[in-house]
Each structure stands twice: as structure tokens, then as C-alpha cells.
Design goal:
Largest sheet: 9 strands, mixed
Shape: globular
Oligomer: single chain
Number of strands: 15
Structural class: alpha+beta
Distance between the termini: 32 Å
Radius of gyration: 24 Å
């Protein structure tokens, strides 16, 4: 009550305003909008027959009540392939056979457990264990059961050029002694590993992700676990793109590649943004030489500040219109300085808001054409011509809307279903799995809590 009555607290609250609130003038939104019909068109809607969506799910559980800081992280990443022609046909019938829906898509997923705090391999520290386990995960995770290509191969492909994966990757900092690489002191690692010339620390390809920099030896590691999930999702998409480019390039123009979330890399992963930018640009240029449409790649956001803002202004955006988000507009609604260069270090695609013909908004991220960086601040990257795939992507998404949840499209919903780790009883099972398999932990039924609907 004293805090509620405090005038200083009340005065502080009254001084603030919400930057992402609905704008006072509609002109600031409508002048940034364009109907789909006015945008450049690359490719044909009827030729896009498939969508491939990658999604991930992660969770962290406490091992026992006696050791609440001992945690285990679980990660699941899934790729879902949807036959778009089948879904278009289902939209025309009155009664849908669930078997037809099930037969129209397939999925493949891989799972991994990563060590949290106070879990180590014999003779290793916690962070060394994290690095070694992550390396094994990348080496052993194939993007599809019918291929041998792993996430490690995707990481090398990302650091190479079209059709020529890198044989080694340069690290910026030694994870052992912390020395930074220079012209005279290099840190390189191959698929088999490497070694620091200063401290002899064994180096892994997984060190390029830099997730070990956020490893916490005494508490939650949910943040680096989330980084691993993001990296695995993006690398899985790279696997699909390179597999088709190597074996069946024509498939690229028939397929929409969807990522759950924005096309961006944050935190220690951010330096990989430039690799994705160059890799996708290289692939687009390679396709152009073969008279193929650049790969249709889009990130779709289900939540977050931009999704909330899109919901607030959706009635200002006309149906079937796309709104481009300039740096000036983004800085204003996010409370950043006017001259801030938003997204320049993280995004390899640019955000747009598309109001579908059914009326709901989608926040999407689309890569620019080859040779451009989406947030370099130039007038060219803020214009429509820099995104030749934008119109076709929006037209495809229009046909894939679903009311399963807000801002949902069918491929994302199916991929999320395949990737989702269970809550309630399922989370308790993951906790018990850790107790039964980690030496030194006793089975603790009290740590396995039943869901609330069993308690009522």
C-alpha cells in the first residue's frame, strides 16, 4: 500500500507513453502501404506446389528437489513438408476428410538433450561439456532420414560458396583462454576439430555458434538453449536449400521455405547474419543464371512487439496491402533514436506487415535480392523493387490462412505440432527421464508435479 500511495511512483508512471501504440494519424501508415497488384511479380502462384517449414521447441527441467540448480535442457526441431495443391483442393469441399489432411503433409524431427548447470562429462568442466555435447548434436543430426547431410555440413556450406562448402571455419575468440584471433594468431577448425596454439584447448565447429559464451554453470541455461534451437532451425533450412540446389534445382521454384520467427540471428549468433545474407544472395544469383526464380524464403512471427503493433493498426492497412516498415517508422514505434540503424547487425531479411484478404495481419520477413543488405539504411533497400519475391510470397500465404490460432498459417501450425515439446504430464516425464538416467540422481516423485487439472 505504501508503494501505491507513493507520489513519486505515481508521477513516474504518468510520465510514460507507449511507443508502439496506434498512431494518431492514419497517413503515417497508409503512405507506407501498397496493394499486391502494384508490386513486382517474380514467379507464378500456380507453380508453387510445396511448402517446407522448420520449427523448434525447447524446455529446461529441474532434476530433483534436492538439486534444483541441476537442470537438463531438451530440444526438438522439426521440418514439415506440405503439398499446397492438396490444401487448395480441400478449401473447395464442404466436408474435409481428416485423412486427406494427414496425407497432404509429412514431417521429420530430431531430438537432443543438452547439459545444464552442474552436469559434466568425466574430466571436463561444465562449459567444456556443453561444447562437446553441442558438437555431437550438430554432427549426428541429419535434416532428413533419407540423406546423410547433417547440421555440421550446413554450417560448412554456410561459410562456403554455392556448391563449395568451406573446409574450415575461423573462430574469433578461443573458448579456452579467451585470446582473440589476429592476422598472426589464427583460430581455425575443421570438421574433425582444431586446437588453440596458445592454450592447446580443443576446438569444435560448434564453437562458431558461440553459445558457450552464455553458458551458466550455476543456474538456468535456457538462453543458450534457445540460441541452439534458433541455429538448428536455420541450419536445417540451409540443408533443404542446398540439397535441392545440388540434386533437383527445379524444385526450388516450386517450393516455399518458411521459418518460424524473423530471418535474424541475435546475441552471440549475430555474426552469422552476414553468412546467411551472403549465402542466400549467392544462391539467388546462382538460380538467376539458370533462369530460375530466386528461392521463396519467408519468416513468419506469431508473437512479439511487431505482431502486437500490427494488430493495433490492421484496420488502417487496406485488405490485400503490404506495409513496408522504414527505419524511421521502426525507430518511432520502438522508442529508438531517430538515426538508429535498426537490424543492421542481426537481420538477413526485412520485416513487412501484410494484411491478408481475410483481414488479419501477418508480420513477415523476406530477404532482398542478391547483393543487398536489408537494413543498410539506403533508399534502395527500403523500396519495393529490392524484394522481388514479396508479392508471390504474400499471395501464397493468403491461401494458407487458418483459424487454429491468431496469426497462423497452415504450414507453421503443422510444423509447430511436430516440434512442440509436451507440457503438463509430458514435462514431468522429461524430468523423470533425467532422474532415471543421470548417475547420482535419485528418483524424486515430488519433483514430478502433476498438471493442475489433476489437482482440482
Amino acid at each position: 500500500m505504501d508503494t501505491v500511495r507513493n507520489e513519486a511512483v505515481r508521477a513516474a508512471l504518468q510520465r510514460w507513453s507507449i511507443t508502439s501504440a496506434r498512431p494518431d494519424s492514419e497517413k503515417g501508415v497508409t503512405e507506407l502501404c501498397s496493394p499486391l497488384e502494384d508490386l513486382p511479380l517474380s514467379g507464378k502462384l500456380e507453380e508453387v506446389d510445396f511448402s517446407i517449414t522448420v520449427d523448434g521447441s525447447d524446455t529446461e527441467v529441474e532434476a530433483t528437489r534436492n538439486h534444483p540448480t541441476v537442470k537438463v535442457g531438451y530440444l526438438r526441431v522439426a521440418g514439415s513438408v506440405v503439398r499446397l495443391d492438396a490444401f487448395r483442393n480441400l478449401a473447395r469441399v464442404k466436408h474435409i476428410d481428416p485423412r486427406e489432411v494427414r496425407n497432404s503433409h509429412s514431417e521429420y524431427a530430431f531430438d537432443v538433450a543438452l547439459p545444464g548447470s552442474q552436469l559434466t562429462r568425466p574430466g571436463m568442466t561444465g562449459v567444456e561439456t556443453w561444447r562437446a555435447e553441442l558438437e555431437d548434436f550438430l554432427h549426428n543430426s541429419r535434416f532428413d532420414s533419407n540423406t546423410e547431410m547433417t547440421l555440421t555440413d550446413a554450417l560448412l556450406a554456410l561459410h562456403g560458396t554455392r556448391g563449395k562448402p568451406a573446409s574450415e571455419i575461423s573462430l574469433r575468440v578461443c573458448p579456452g583462454c579467451g585470446l582473440k584471433a589476429t592476422k598472426s594468431f589464427t583460430l581455425t577448425v575443421t570438421k574433425e576439430g582444431g586446437s588453440c596454439h596458445s592454450c592447446n584447448t580443443h576446438l569444435y565447429l560448434a564453437d562458431a555458434l558461440r553459445t558457450h559464451e552464455e553458458y551458466n554453470s550455476e543456474g538456468s541455461n535456457f538462453t543458450p538453449l534457445g540460441r541452439v534451437m534458433t541455429a538448428a532451425e536455420r541450419l536445417m533450412s540451409v540443408c533443404y536449400l542446398n540439397f535441392f540446389a545440388d540434386t533437383a534445382p527445379e524444385v526450388l521454384r516450386h517450393t516455399l521455405f518458411i521459418t518460424d520467427g524473423p530471418l535474424a540471428m541475435f546475441g552471440p549468433l549475430a555474426p552469422l547474419k552476414r553468412r546467411f545474407e551472403e549465402h542466400l544472395g549467392d544462391l539467388a544469383a546462382w538460380c538467376a543464371k539458370r533462369n530460375l526464380v530466386a528461392p521463396l524464403i519467408v519468416g513468419i512471427e506469431k508473437s512479439g512487439a511487431f505482431v502486437e503493433h500490427a494488430e493495433l493498426i490492421k484496420d488502417i492497412i487496406p485488405l490485400g496491402h503490404v506495409m513496408r516498415l522504414t527505419n524511421t517508422y521502426i525507430n518511432r514505434i520502438s522508442g529508438r533514436p531517430e538515426g538508429n540503424h535498426y537490424g543492421v547487425d542481426e537481420f538477413y531479411g526485412r520485416r513487412f506487415i501484410y494484411r491478408t484478404r481475410t483481414g488479419d495481419p501477418l508480420v513477415i520477413t523476406v530477404p532482398p535480392k542478391a547483393g543487398l543488405s536489408p537494413y543498410d539504411g539506403s533508399p534502395e533497400v527500403e523500396g519495393w523493387d529490392a524484394y522481388p519475391t514479396l508479392r508471390l510470397i504474400c499471395e501464397i500465404l493468403d491461401s494458407l490462412r487458418t483459424r487454429m490460432y491468431q496469426h497462423a498459417v497452415v504450414p507453421i501450425a503443422l510444423a509447430h505440432s511436430a516440434a512442440a515439446l509436451p507440457l503438463g504430464v509430458g514435462r514431468s516425464v522429461l524430468t523423470m527421464m533425467a532422474q532415471q538416467n543421470i548417475p547420482g540422481l535419485k528418483l524424486d516423485l515430488q519433483a514430478v508435479q502433476p498438471p493442475t487439472y489433476f489437482k482440482n
